[in-house]
Amino acid sequence: MVKRVFSGIQPTGTMHIGNYFGAIRNWVSLQNEADCIYCIVDYHAITIDVDPKELRTASQSMALDLLACGIDPERSILFVQSDVPTHTELEWIFGCVTSYGDLSRMTQFKDKSDKQEFVSAGLFTYPILQAADILIYRADGVPVGEDQVQHLELSRRIARRFNSRFGEYFPEPEPIVRKGARIMSLADPTSKMSKSAGEVHYVGVMEPETSIRKKVRSAVTDVGLEVGAAMSPGVANLFEILELACESVGDTATVAELKTEFADGKLLYSRLKDTTFERLMDVLRPIQERRAKLAASGNVVELLQAGARKATKIASATMVDVRRLVGLGTSA
Ligand code: AQP
Q: E-strand spans in 99-237?
């Protein structure tokens, strides 16, 4: 059993149902099982070109999204990464125990750098900062989607290298990967749902109902398969979303019913899409309503600053130990 959980989300773009089902839903339920620290990772966001005028607003907006999804600031620490700048101090130290070869093997860097004209060094070293984010709290569990598992493996290696060079100190954090860890794009079901791929590729958690209906209705499926054939990626993805949504609202019958129709070759994809849309809205509607109320209450900045004070206490204590272990500075 994990004792302390850490995870982060970037404030760029809107939270989508891949983030929700792959990560945030687990963040919420883990609040009943462990000490949870959740972070809006704005340092990570600037690895690509973001508008400085929009970044602070985006961080606050992401905080509202997380609160609406069920992150409870009474039980968890919720804060913005750059409000605890010691994350970057630990990143430098970790950079000195990370090999260039390890970083070069990160597939997400390859994917993301292909989409950039200017490839920053920050985009390349991003997984080192991610290790520092986690380990500065000495967290032993990290809820993530499948796309982040390789980065987590690197965090474990960084912890091991630090421990063998400077003395046993950091735990090796375990990825917590549950159902829904890889939701695919509705427009291209062979690639993962992602904020940066463009509007048609994701369904936003806070998106208006009419727009969600349109996106689900236009999801790519297939032209109809022979009875007994395996599901095409688009149909499998819709079933995955339907299953997750049904599970969230306690509907135990619908998925089995539709799967039987599929197996018998009688399932109309329009029915699959409409049912997926309806169940999805059963999950998203209450979140959207809570989000509207939270936005009206206007205290998100104080709440994030209180979270940062709690996080700073833990992070500062770690850095005192780390500086001593590494032999840095002048104080004992
Ligand atoms: N499609 C997905 N299915 C399941 N889980 C996913 N996650 C992201 N996409 C999916 C998980 O959501 C958490 C927060 O992600 P993030 O915003 O910090 O980073 P990301 O992985 O880079 O998310 P995006 O949407 O794909 O952003 P862009 O397009 O900017 O790269 C993570 O735990 C992630 O695993």
A: 141-143, 174-176
Beta bridge partners of 192: 184
Active site residue 214: no
DSSP 187: S
Give the distance (Å) from ligand 1 centre to CA of residue 19.
5
Single-letter residue type at 218: S
Binning pLDDT at 50, 70 and 90, where does residue 332 land? Answer: low
Q: Which of 110, 112, 214, 310 is catalytic?
A: 112
Q: Global pTM?
A: 0.94
Q: Is 50:116 a contact under the CB 8 Å cutoff? A: no
Q: Set out the domains of the chain in order of their start, with CATH numbers.
A: 4-181+298-326 (3.40.50.620), 199-292 (1.10.240.10)
Give the mutation target among 48, 147, 152, 190 for probing the ligand 1 site: most ligand atoms within 8 A of CB.
147
Dump pLDDT digits (tens) for 248-288: 999 999 999 999 999 998 999 999 999 999 999 999 999 99
| CA dihedral (219, 224, 225, 228) positive or negative | positive
Q: What HEC string does 211-259 produce?
A: HHHHHHHCCCCCCCCCCCCCCCHHHHHHHHHHHHHHHHHCCCCHHHHHH
